Amino acid sequence: MLNKRTELYTLGQHISMCAHKAQRVIDQIRGRSYEETLMILELMPYRACYPIFKLIYSVAANASSNMGSNEANLVISKAEVNKCTIMKRLKPRAQGRSFAIQKPTCHIYNFCNERYILR
């Protein structure tokens, strides 16, 4: 018996949200199966769920089309969020002054494994 292991990943770059807001969603889905992850992301009330949902859905689509594997066998093995650049904007204020607005962005990585046994 051989235990074959394959790994797929997706990368979402420059997603316009703060890294620690995305991190609290990622902590909930790490180590869970694909179907359980989708249910969790649909029911959580956070804005960070939608881009993460799209990345997880993309991993499953890549697994089924490129590798011909079943989506039910996927497990989120590793997921991480990294800080990215901060977009800086100026907001006009009273008496000709300006106010700095910082819009943080983040990178989200999702790694999925599929484990099955060859006989």
Features:
Ribosomal Protein L22, Chain A; alpha+beta; single chain; 3-stranded antiparallel beta sheet
Q: What's this model, at a glance?
A:
This protein has 119 residues and is an alpha+beta fold. 33% of the residues lie in helices and 45% in strands.
Strand order of the largest sheet: 1-3-2
Form type: elongated
CATH architecture: Alpha-Beta Complex
The proportion of strand residues reads over 45%
Structural class: alpha+beta
Q: Please outline the major beta sheet.
A: 3 strands, antiparallel
CATH topology: Ribosomal Protein L22, Chain A
Our count of helices gives 3
**How much helix is in the residues?**
25-40%
Please provide the ordered H/E string of secondary-structure elements: EHHHEE
Uncertain runs are none
Walk me through what this model shows.
The structure is a single chain. The chain has 119 residues and is of the alpha+beta class. It has a single domain, classed as Alpha-Beta Complex (Ribosomal Protein L22, Chain A). The protein is 33% helix and 45% strand. It has three helices and three strands, in the order βαααββ. It has a three-stranded antiparallel β-sheet, with helices on one face. A hairpin with a 5-residue loop joins strand 2 and strand 3. Helix 2 runs antiparallel to helix 3.
Secondary-structure map:
Elements: E1 2-15, H1 19-29, H2 34-43, H3 49-66, E2 74-92, E3 98-118
Antiparallel strand pairs: 1-3, 2-3
Helix pairs in contact: 2-3
